[in-house]
Amino acid sequence: MILINILLIDDHVLFAKSLKIAFEDYDQINQFSIIQDVDHIMSVIENLMPDIILMDINLGNISNEDGLELAKYIISNGYKTNIVMLTGYDLPVYRHEAKKIGVNGFINKNIMPNKLLEILIDIQNGTYYFPESPDFVEELTDSEKQILQLLANGYKRKEIASIVFASERTVSNHIQHIFDKLNVSSSLEAVTKGIRFGYIQPNYKE
Fold this sequence. Notes:
By secondary structure, the protein is α/β, with parallel strands linked by helices. It folds into 2 domains: 4-124, Response regulator (Rossmann fold, 3-Layer(aba) Sandwich); 142-197, Winged helix-like DNA-binding domain superfamily/Winged helix DNA-binding domain (Arc Repressor Mutant, subunit A), CATH 1.10.10. It contains 9 helices and 5 strands, in the order βαβαβαβαβααααα. It has a 5-stranded parallel beta sheet with strand order 2-1-3-4-5, sandwiched between helices. Helix 6 packs across helix 9 (187-197).
C-alpha cells in the first residue's frame, strides 16, 4: 500500500483542519501537515519532505504571493515533489497557468475526501490531473489582460491609451484581439467573459 506524506498550504484555518480530520480515516496517509507561514517555505519543505504539496491559489491571509507564484518559486528551487493546486478559484486561466508552470494537478475544493485521495494517489504514481474544461480560449497577453481589466474598471479607450502609454489605435488593436480570442463582439461581453474565465481579478485595486 502506498503511503503519502502531504503538506497543505492554505490560509483558511477551518478548511485546513477539516481536511486534516477527514484524512485521519485513511491508512494511505502517512503524515498530513499544515503550514500557514510561508516565509521560510523551502526550509519547511526540506524538513517535512512531503510527497505532495496541496496549495490554494488565494493565500491572501498568509502571503503577498498567490499559490501559483509560490508553486513556481518552489519548482524553480529544484525541490522534487508533486504540487497540486486545491482551490475554489476553478477558472480556465488559473488551470492554464498551473499547467504552464509545471504543477501536477488542479483540483476544485468542492470534492469529497475519498475522491481527492484517489486523485492524489494517482498523481503520486506519476499521473497528472487537469480536468478538461468546455470553456477554452486562446491565452491573452499581459497587455491584453491589462487592457481588459481597465475596460472592466470603466475606462474609455482614450483613457486607457494614456494609462498604458500607447496610441488609441494600438489600444483599439489590442481590444479587437481580445474580442477575437474571447469570441465576443463588445466590451461588455468581453468583461463578462473575462470575469468568468478569471482574467479579471475579483479584488482588483488601482
